[in-house]
Design brief:
The complex is a heterotetramer of chains A (about 650), B (about 500), C (about 100) and D (about 170). Chain C is an all-alpha fold. Chain C has three helices and no strands. Helix content of chain C is about 75%, strand content about 0%. Chain D is mainly α. In chain D, helix 1 runs antiparallel to helix 2 and helix 2 packs antiparallel against helix 3. The radius of gyration of chain D is 21 Å and the shape is globular. The chains are: A mainly alpha (about 650), B mainly alpha (about 500), C mainly alpha (about 100), D mainly alpha (about 170).
Amino acid sequence: MADYTYTLLIPLIPLFMFLLLGLTGHKMKPVVSGLIGTSGLGIGAILAYATAIRYFWTGHVAGTSYASIKAFEVSWLHLTEKLTIHLGVLIDPISVMMLVVITTVSLMVHIYSIGYMKGDPGFYRFFSFLSLFSFSMLGLVLATNIFQMYIFWELVGVSSFLLIGYYYEKPSAVAASKKAFIVTRFADLGFLIGILMLSFNTGTYDFQTLTDPHGPAIASLGGAAFMGMSVLTWSLIFIFVGGAGKSAMFPFHIWLPDAMEGPTPVSALIHAATMVVAGVYLVARLFPVYALAAPDALHVVAWIGGFSSIFAAVIACTQTDIKRVLAFSTMSQIGYMMLSLGVSGFGGEEGLGFMASNFHLFTHAMFKALLFLGAGAVIHAVHSNEIKDMGNLRKYLPITHITFLIACLTIAGIPPFSGFFSKDEILVAAFHSNKILFAIEYIVAGLTAFYMFRLYYGIFWGKKTHYHHTPHESPLVMTIPLMILAFGSVFAGFLPFHNLVTSDGIGFESHIDWMIAIPSVLIGVIGIAIATVMYKNESAIPDKIAATFKHLYNWAHRKFYMDEVYLFVTRKIIFRYISDPIAWFDRHIVDGTMNGIAGMTVYAAYAIKGLQSGKLQQYAYVFVGGTVILVLIFVYLT
Amino acid sequence: MNILNLFIVIPILTVVGIVLTKDLKQSRLVSAIGMGVQMILSFILVYLYLKERATGNTAAMLFTYDALWFPTLNIHYSLGVDGISVAMIALTGIVVFAGIFASWKVTYLPREFFISLIILASGVFGFFISVDLFTMFLFYELAVIPMYLLIGIWGSGPKEYSAMKLTLMLMAGSAMLMVGILGIYFFSSPDHTHLTFNLLEISKIRIPIQMQRFLFQFTFIGFGILGALFPFHTWSPDGHASAPTAVSMLHAGVLMKLGGYGAFRVAIFLMPEAAHEQAWIFLILTSVSVVYGAFSAAVQNDLKYINAYSSVSHCGLVLFAVLMMNQTAMNGAIVQMISHGLMTALFFALIGMIYGRTHTRIIQEMGGLMKVIPFLGVVYVIAGLASLGLPGFSGFVAEMIIFTGAFQHVDVFHRVITIVAASSIVITAVYILRVVGLLLMGPIKNDHFLHLDDAKWYERISTITLVLAITAIGVAPFWLTNMINFSLAPIVEKLSAIQITSLF
Amino acid sequence: MIQNIPLSYYLIISTLMFFIGIYGFLTRRNLITMLMSVELILNSVNINFVAFNRYLYPQQLQGHFFMLIVVAVAAAEAAVAIAIIINIYRNFKSIDVENVDEMKY
Amino acid sequence: MLNQVMFFLFGAMIVIFSLLTVTSRKILRAAVFLLFVLISTAGLYFALNYNFLAAVQLTVYAGGIVVLIIFSILLTSHVSERAVMAPLKQSLLSALATVAGATLTLMTILRFTFVPSSAADPHFNITDVGNALVSYNRDGYALPFEVVSVLLLAAMIGAIVVAKKEKMLKK
């Protein structure tokens, strides 16, 4: 077995960069700090590629399954006799794939940010946070056990919080960062409960032990049943809640659109390509347990994914902030991945959905990062997020235009771009499992094509907009990452994923099912066509349609009032009906009781003090009366 | 000379030294040196302890020292430490040291201030090294009493009220405690011939169950009041809000730990049967504390109140874990004590520093401070993140050990209540982020705040010491937990020897 | 000679005198009259001592001496009390007991 | 027979004059009533054949204390001054307590049967009393005698000190 210990360096280098930049960054020149951060990621990316090539090709004996290798592990915290938290590096197909995704996108974002964040006073802070995020994300995907994953899961959440709130003087950014953290934190509670239940029942945190099809975890799948489902199922559902929180699945998705308050490269890195797919990765990581021991939990995953994908797609059609459109699109695409995992079986052809999900994760990372970075370039040029402030930009931003178009075609599933391949696999998997979900996915495919081209036309074609100063193409340091990612978007589809990333590590034959692919392409094309008619040139059709379906439009535009529901729950219920009464209760009832006791003591003291009146005859009276009563009691009443 | 005696001697010498000084500069220098030595001494103690254990010494208490003090009642001046107390001593050393630097600018009666502070500290040290219940109680009182002066004289706001409230409630706790301790004393010998106050000797016998039922409540509530057990926690917000910075630090950071430590060392250790029987009541109370404190903190507007309620929540978790009575949860309780001690001391230090600059503690009146005082801002964020349980800081370690340990309980009731308590991590995030958002981020609301100075060197010493300690535990908790585990093992063995009858 | 009169008659008289004295002590406002009430009380006790001595232990002298001592104490008490009363009168210009209530709280 | 008459006469006088002492509105008159009470008590002692005691009663009480009281009355109030009486409520409550106490005591006394000593009438004289008073033997009263002397001395000095004028104190 090959030695992969060096992979430890992949997360550790960004950590070192974080500490270096965080502690000494304020003394550096901005560019230097940017270059340091980027170079750290560069080394990481090279190591990741080397690992991937070694693992999948050069170091791999053809025809055998891809083993899962514990490259490194130390015991960190001993909890009980059975449970010990380890920190380590686990190398297996999905972690290697994620390594490649994360380092690639992160590197691109680093390079891009050198241009994008130029002149920002917190330059070094930005790069140190990016490094922190990269470290956490890499640690997450390399986790050897579920607790390590939880640790990095939290770290990822915090770096996301820090980066969303990067413009900390902007109240909306602060609010968004808080929202993101708290919503995901709430979901993480579910994750934690899931971990506690899972570890209580299986006595291990270790992924290899947990996911071993013949291991104790899956063998002990029974356990006490609760509400018709085994405890294991419940624990897996709770764990999925954590994943749903990070991956912005319904109903935890509300933080994602607001998270767009962060700098655009951050949105590209965290809220499009890497962190938000952590939920998918989590389910994929525990996939054998889900598939073999708790199919019910997997159904939950599938339905939540399916619902989220169509829900987000509908909202995306009505949003006017380009980053929010992309955010909902992200949510929709992650719904795809979740659904794909949910409909998958375990092993061989059965595991098509698993493969498709990871495949889509891979391609999605490329094209969604590209879309965000492109959007960033546009925003950089026009200093606005709103579609209405844009239009006809294709002349000013040619490179951005072309790369953006490629990304749009990719996400719409037009062959031969990579999105077509991954999406097709998902559709096939869904088709073989559940026809309703399959139908949903068809609709979503159409909607996706529609809103992406609505966005594309809105930005690069459409109305003639007058700009205060002529928009100009971004510098090379920003456009080169665009081009590289565009290259990835186009060609990533040709990777033989079905041989590399499978549910049981054994490759299988996969081919395009044209009976499913052709209609899906057609639907995509129809979506594009409608968008072309409506948005290519200024036209009144969109407004008319919006007027016709006024209520639906309003509902979708307001994101189905989910924010309001949450606000209601937090502001009204939690703050007004729980916290405020508790605080009041504490100040007045609990503390009042304490003060009351003190007050009674004082009152009693005053009352007793009054007896001491100085009136001699009163004393004598009490004395006499007391004596009489005592005599009465002791002589006659006893 | 036994090293433990030094923990009493050095504060006394320091106090004498301060008496001899003339002004603020000299007295704070003497205090800083004295407490610096004390801190180093506590680290040396940790080192010596580990070394001693490494040589295979498995006695329950190390470095024991015993002198007969009052023969008629068989009271001894008896010292000794195990892994738990060593850890607590290290915590105290750090917090006191940081506290001295946080009160660098006390101008009103500085000598008296430092003397009271150090007497308080010596009480805490004495409490942790005592093996004899009587001396333990004596030191406990020694730690509580100066609090009245410190808050009543150097406090702010309604300081007389707060000082009175705090002292009276803690005294009520002491009264219950004294009943408990005397009760234990009179049942410390099965044939009533050799009554003793010695913890270890008492632990070998079995106090009659009827007495345990009665005494357990007294001792547990007595210590629980100091450990902010719901509904006896209300001294905490008022007391902390009025106390001067260093006192808040010491009080929340160390003194409240006396409650948890005592509840564990005296109440549960000596009366395990009653503890098992009555744990459920207190588990409910503590889990209420945990959640309730967090919810209360979410709507407070005064920084100190927020932190005081947060302390209620976190200290509730300590007692909660202690009551779970298994090795892991108890270990977590001790780590949580240390972690919370450091975090809350850091918080109070920062609040004091911010208050010293802005002259307000109402969060709505501040905003955007990150831009003007970046050092303090960053440290505040670190403290906040540590408090809400971010991996890499001590809070996460402690909470995770507690929750994992508590969830290992065979009883369903205990597991359910663990989930209830665990839900506090979300609410904690809510109030911490609320403060961070309102205080440090957003636009600056008051022009006066534009010209604030960032931390001075002494403030940096204070905060950096604490941050380093928090991070050290967060990154490498294993040495701490191992140290604690070793000493916990016999205690837990004793506890688990008892037949547990499930309540539900 | 004494056979015709039972001991309890003496006791009844002394009891009545005692309680009349108490009544006086409780109701008179003038300190001197209160002192007089006290004398009544003491006197009633003397009657008891003497009567018991005479009826129950005629051979012994305890009753005598108690009575004598009480008389002496009463004399001393009266002397000191009157000194105090005069002093009070000097300070308060009154010997009404209602006015002398400084010693409180 | 005469004996009984004497007893009832003195008894009635004691009760009546006691009542008058505590109810009279003129202070001087109250003092005189007190004198009568004390004299009647002396009469009772005579009836009991305790002549020495009766004599002491007359000289010390009637002669000494009452005179002292009358002096002080004259010093502190006007002869014609009418005493302020307690309010009705106080009187009633006091009467209630007093009557209750008296009833209780009387009930107790009457329930108990005293058996008078069957011994012969004593025939000791003043000499015996005097001897016993200064005797330090088993039945002697030298110690109480001395104690009372000291007490009287102390009272005397105390009374002088207390009653002395401020001016004199300052010197």
